Amino acid sequence: MGSNKTDKFANDDERLIRAPWEKGFNQILTPFEEFIKRETTSGLLLMATALIALILANSAWAVHYQHLLHVSVSFSFGGWELDKSLHHWINDGLMTLFFFVVGLELKREILVGELSRPRQAALPIVAAIGGMVVPALLFAILSPAGDALRGWGIPMATDIAFALGVIALLASRVPKSLITFLVALAIVDDLGAVVVIALFYTEQLVWEFLIAGAGLTGLLILMNLVGLRRPFVYFLVGILLWLALLKSGVHATLAGVITAFTIPALPRFEPKSFSQRMREMLDRFDASFSPGESILRNQQLSAVVQTLENGIHGVETPLQRLEHTMHMPVAFLVLPLFAFFNAGVVVDFSNLFQALSHPVTAGVGFGLVVGKFIGIAGSCWLAVHLGLASLPRGVGLGHIGGAALLGGIGFTMSIFIAELAYANQPEMILQAKLGILSASLVAGIGGYLWLYRLGARMQSEGV
Predict the structure, then answer these.
(1) Residue 250 to residue 11: CA distance in whole angstroms
(2) Coil, strand or helix: which one is 68?
(3) Cα R_g (the chain), whole angstroms
(4) Which of 21, 331, 426, 439 is a good FRET partner for 294, with 20 to 30 A between their CA atoms?
(5) In degrees rounded to 5, what are phi and psi of residue 76?
(6) For strand 72-77 and strand 80-85, is the pairing parallel, antiparallel, or unpaired?
(7) What is the pLDDT of residues 235-276, one digit of tens each?
(8) What are the backbone angles phi and psi of residue 81, rounded to the nearest 5°?
C-alpha cells in the first residue's frame, strides 16, 4: 500500500513542469551561508549601480541626474506635512530598512554568532576598533581644523557587501574562516558607525520628540517582554519611532537599529515538539492527497498546508524570519538605490590631481586605505602576540593583511556619514565622496591582488 502511494507521488512528480528557480528548494543553506551569498551578489550589484551613477553624473545626462536627486516628494495628513527631496527620502527613509537589517545581524551575532563567544569574538572586535580609531586619527591629522574636521568619522566604516563581492572573485583561494572573520569585523564596524552617528552627528535636540522616542522604545521593549511576536506591530511602532527621531534631531535611521534590537529571538515551539507535530501533519497530508486533484479543491489538504506554515513560523524566531525576509529587498533594492543617488560624483579629469590632494579627499582616502590597513592588521598582530586573541583556523597574518586592505572599501556607511558630516556643504560632500570612491577602488584592487597572490603561492607550495 505504501509502495503504491509512493509510486503515485513519483509519477505525479515526473509530470510536473519545474521552473529553474524551483531547484533552489533542494539546496539547503545555513543562515550564514545564505547571508554570504546575498551579500556577495549585492556587492557586485552595488559596484554596477555606483558605476552607472558615476557615468551619468559626468555625461550629457548630468542635468537630468541632478534634477532627479532634487525631485520633491511630500506626504500630508490634515495640517501635518512632510516634504523632502527624493535624495533625502532615500537617505533618511529607505536607509532605515538597511539599519534595521544591520540591527538584526548585530543581535544575531551577539546572541549565537561569532560575537557570542569571547575567545572567537576577541580578534574581530580588536580589529574593528583598530580599524576605526586609526583612520579617524589619520583623517584628523591630514584635515585642517574647522568644518572639514567634522568628517573624521567617514573613513571608519567598512562596506561588507563590497568586500564580500571582491572575495567572491577569489573563489577557493581564501579560507572560509577568513570570510567569517571579515563579516564579524564589518558587523562590529557597523555597530561603531551607528554609535558615532548617534553621539557625534546629531543635530540640535528637540526634547519633547526625544521623550516621545524614548516612550516608543519602551513600548517596543515591553512588547518583546510580553511575548508579542507579530512583525507588523513592531513595524508600526518602528514607523512612529522613526517620525519621532526625525523631529527630535537624532538621525531617524537609528530607529531601524532600535526596532531590530527589540525583535524577539526566541521560538514559540521547541524543536522536538515541532518535529512530532510536523510528522503528524505530513501523515495527514499524505492521507488527504488525491493524484491529479488541485489543492484548491481539497480543503483538507489546504488546511494541513496552512497548519504546516504556521508551525514553521512558530519554530523559527521572528528575528531569523525577518532577517531572511528583509535582506533581499535591502540588498537588491535599498542599497542599489542609495548607491545610484549618492555615487554620482562630478569628476574634473583636467584637474583630478588637485581634487585628490584636497584635505578632505586626501584625509578620507588615506584614512580608508592606509588607516584601515594599519588599524586592522596592526591591532590583530598585537592581539595575537600578546595572547589576547588567536587567529582563525587556516588563517595567517598574510590573510589578515589582505582582509585589512579590503576593510578600506568604505562605500555605503562612509557616504552616509559624509552626508551627515557636511550637511548643506555640497563642495565638502563632493570631495569626501571622491575620496571614498577612489580609496574603495584602490583598496578593492589592492586587497584582491594581495589575497590572489597569497592564495596562488600557498597552492603552489601545497599548503
Answers:
(1) 61
(2) helix
(3) 25
(4) 21
(5) -135, 150
(6) antiparallel
(7) 999 999 999 998 888 888 889 999 999 999 887 777 777 777
(8) -140, 140
